[in-house]
Amino acid sequence: MPDISFVLNGEVVRVPQDGEATTLLDYLRLTRGLTGTKEGCNEGDCGACTVMLASVEEGALAHRAVNACILLLGQLAGKSVTTVEALGGDHPVQAAMVEHHGSQCGFCTPGIVMSLTASHRNGRQDHEDVLAGNLCRCTGYVPILKAAKAVLAAEVPTARYDEKALMKPLADTGFIDLDSFADWYAKNPDAVLVGGATEVGLILTKELKQPEKFAFINRIKALQVVEREIGGLRIGAGVLLARLQGLMADKHPQFAEMLRRFGSEQVRNSATIGGNIANGSPIADTPPALIALEASITLRKGGKRREILLEHFYQSYGVQDQAEGEFIESVFIPEQADTLGVYKISKRFDQDISTLCGAFNIEVKGGVVSKARIAFGGMAATPKRAKTVEAALVGQPWNEASIATAQAAFAEDYTPLSDQRGSAAYRMILAQNLLKRYFLEQTGTERVRVVGGAS
Amino acid sequence: MSVAKSIPHDSGQGHVSGAARYVDDYPMPADTVHLAFGLSANAHADFTLDISVVRAAEGVIDVLVASDLPGENDVSPAARDEPLLAVDVVHYIGQPIFLVVADTHLNARRAARLGRVSYTEKTPLVTLDQAIAAGSSFGEPLTFAIGDAENALKNAPHAVSGTMEIGGQEHFYLEGQAAYALPEEGDVRVVSSTQHPSEIQHKVAEALHLPFHAVRVETRRMGGGFGGKESQGNALAVSCAVVALRLDRPAKMRYDRDDDMIITGKRHDFRIKYRAGFGPDGKIESVVFEHFVKCGWALDLSHPVADRAMLHADNAYHLPNAKIVSHRLRTNTQSNTAYRGFGGPQGILGIERVIEHIASDLGLDPLTVRQANFYAAKGELTPYHMEVEDSISAELVAQLADSAGYKTRRVEIAKFNAGSKVVKRGISLVPVKFGISFTLTFLNQAGALVHVYADGSVQLNHGGTEMGQGLNTKVAQVAAQVFGLGVETIKITATDTGKVPNTSATAASSGADLNGMACKDACEKIRTRMMRFLGERYDCGQEDIRFEAGNVTIAGEVISFAEAAAMAYQARVSLSATGFYKTPKLKWDRLEGKGRPFLYFSYGAAVSEVELDTLTGENRILRTDILHDVGNSLNPALDIGQIEGAFVQGAGWLTIEELRWADDGRLLTAAPATYKIPCASDAPDQLNVALWDGANREKTIYRSKAVGEPPFVHGMSVFMALSAALAAAGGQRHIDAPATAERLLMALQN
């Protein structure tokens, strides 16, 4: 295997292949002495380690804020990393942060500067979303948001070096061919697949495991393809959640709104739809919506493919319908009129793991429910449909009385757990109330949620 | 003028460029070793330990157990009940049992998980109820009282009673605990992320049987403290120092975030029982409080924390008859510690609940009840028999209620609620009165060391530590003010026990009050010497000499400060001085519950409006207005920054920040994935902060007031606004804290 080559602050660096599972944060701080990038949590939750990652996508440079603590060097091949040290100290974001008193203890500040540098470059104005993955314990965010707003007026400074030119010679080493990967993985099923490493990273930094074999599938371009097919949209398993959010914005806006609150900017810039499906977590956030949309997935082993409904993929806690050496290649969302409601409930609105996430896709014809697909995460050992509730609704008039009857049926479908994110009783009431929210949203004009609904 | 200016934080540019260094950022010598603790997995058990596998693990250089320690095995701030490494018995899950020394941080962490510990389990006391039932406490309950509370309760026309559970809080300083130690010919130099370098010095000295002078402790800055680095850094610093001298190699230790959350203490959880008697206008006649304080397994600072809660059981209200009883319970959980407000917020939440309960009982606007009970401007006594001489609550609250449009908005909200079935709004105004001074009176002292060099540049050192609050900036402003210099002329150096000895923790909001005064004293000594010399040289009176704008004007002649310094140097005038300050007027007997524990009070109030989703319990802060008293502000920008940050942190404490323990004593919320502090979108859409226009009536540094802790209480306005929204939705409004979405939703299930 070749060395891993990437650009760091304008310099091409080569790391031997055995360093592929080193986190970028450790590499920066311990090997390079670049201590401006901080370790706050070492699990992708605080953003103190935020750096800017550039890649060439369809010929153009794309810049994203990512967490260095759970980003592995193996993912960086052919890309370009910018750390706070490379901004020069006089970047408009840095100047605005000083001017608006945006730092107190200063430990989160380099990460915040990097998030804002990426968003400034990309012309983003949704500062709260941009910063959801950057925790600050001192300021209460007010001066930081002021700085973010103020800097909008400033030009993006001229690049100090030509990132694209520096990346160009590295391009060939960076990518892996899908077919050869499929064959390799069929023979090496013990390899750990790394898409965005937002889950795998924690196995290294928190569980302190040392897997021997990795496959950096974020380097497979063919997994990042989105295609409109007859009857729907095929989304490669390697598509970033940030991109998925954009894809859903028009089609299923409530799905996009949920994705806005999925992890954080940094997480969505690393994590993939395939990874979120494959990890099998009962509280993964994309499966409920995808199941409600009747999505299917294509699994591949070597040269063999099979397509199954996503809801059938999840068999029991931690057990998926996935053979050794088989991987998710793509997700298919059928074309349909949008009646999707997606509700993520968490302790904190942004950047939190769901207490539960419910998705409702109910078709009403002539005042009667003709079709219903309801799926929840956080209510069972797997993402799971509420088939009894669905049955209680189908054929019934679409009114409050039917909702009330159907609400009671949740207890037939789910026996939720109590944990630190919520009690079983709370989860059950939530699930029932979310059906009511969906009904009110579909039928009424009154605002029925405090964030994310129509205002 | 250098004071009263919004000068940016002295490290602002360093922060944004990544150049500002924290403990873990310093390049270390090549032979540095890295440390990690092996932790108890049992909340209460006798244990035996086999570390053979640890010793054999990759990169391990040494492993220490309690019997390997050369001196005192104690890292407690005072009570000597907190061994660095457990001996025979463990008292909570996360207690350090052994210390791994390895070549890298990661290898140390890996090896630390390999200890084979055999436990003989005892029954752990995890909850307050379990501790109360078992009679597990730190000493007898303490009582403060004034008047005849029980009798007045009986005679009051109206009465309410209740119990409120108040959750603790994880500090979540962004920089975890960290320290390193360098062996220096038998002495040791420690660099620590600590609010209390002197305590680190003392604990290290005791652990090594060295005199204090052989231990030098430095702190340049912390990545946040909030009280969590007042005593919790001791274990790391002592470990590093012990290992550094044992191996004659530099030693560094930092906690991984999850370890930090599992090992270190947090804000104390409280249960507050109350009985209150009052008149038809809501005027309180008597209150009896019982505080049950969850201290954790060791004492740490629990006594002064619990005392401060008692001392704030009145908040801004005159309680003619009051009795406050405080029980300090010992549990098999982390040893709770200092956290911004130091028990004060919990005490205040108790009386604010009483006010809300009275208001709902009488059907009055809670603000009306608050206003009916404010201390008079002067002359009334607190439950600890201190006369309140400086109360501005009535005027301040009237001004805020007016500027925030409280009354109009209450009407608008009622209208909104009438037309909105699912989303309900609530508004609340909560005041704060916060006592300023360490309640342990001897701590109210500070020192400074100031050098003026022959080129006119000034180096400043003081006993306070910088944790983000801008203390160094403020103290530099004081020096600049005395010398008539620009603040850029003043070089601030790391806090160093070798420069200023016998310091107190930077805590109790007192940093600028104490160190600002000590700095002023030192600078004035030097200035006086310079003036005496210049008066003689120019043959004029000292009243004819002025230091301003970087110059010294001597009887009409203007020379630069640098020239003056050079002349003074050549004339053999000492240009270096120490300064000292002790807070006047304090006299406090905590066992009697009588005296003057505080020099003065800080005041403020906040109005918050919230929106509650009655289907899910989800909620948002729509707007908050704060009016806060910092006396004559030394630096309005830094003060406003403290107020905004404290408010959001306080709101976090009472809403989304929830600590949960399993039945076996395991902390379930031991990572940022499960313990949620506010993020950017949790700040109110509109946050208006204004500073009260008025000087401190006490002679503090330029008549300013302390700012660190008091505004933390402003978060309570959010909690009470949620309570109002619950009431609007027909729910049970008097809920426990924190008001998580779950708790709010459950309060709506009738």
Summarize this, please?
Helix content of chain A is 32%, strand content 21%.
Question: How would you explain this protein's 3D organization?
Answer:
The complex is a heterodimer of chains A (455) and B (750). By secondary structure, chain A is α+β, with helices and mostly antiparallel strands. Among the domains of chain A are: 4-170, Ubiquitin-like (UB roll), CATH 3.10.20; 340-443, 2-Layer Sandwich (Enolase-like, domain 1), CATH 3.30.390.50. Helix content of chain A is 32%, strand content 21%. Chain A contains 19 helices and 18 strands. Chain A has helices at residues 24-31, 92-99, 109-121, 127-130, 142-150, 163-167, 171-174, 178-187, 200-205, 241-251, 253-260, 265-268, 273-278, 286-292, 310-313, 387-393, 400-408, 410-413, 424-443, and strands at 4-8, 11-15, 50-57, 60-67, 80-82, 192-194, 214-216, 226-229, 232-236, 296-301, 304-309, 314-316, 319-320, 327-334, 340-345, 356-365, 368-377, 384-385. Chain A has a five-stranded mixed β-sheet. In chain A, helix 2 crosses helix 5. The longest helix of chain A has 20 residues, at 424-443. The N and C termini of chain A lie far apart (54 Å). The mean pLDDT of chain A is 96. With 750 residues, chain B is an alpha+beta fold. Chain B has 19 helices and 31 strands. In chain B, strands 3-5-1-12-9-10-11-22 form an eight-stranded mixed β-sheet, sandwiched between helices. The longest helix of chain B has 28 residues, at 511-538. Chain B is globular and about 80 Å long. The termini of chain B are far apart. The mean pLDDT of chain B is 98. Chains A and B meet through helix 2, helix 3, helix 4, helix 5 and helix 19 of A and helix 1, helix 3, strand 29, helix 17 and helix 19 of B.
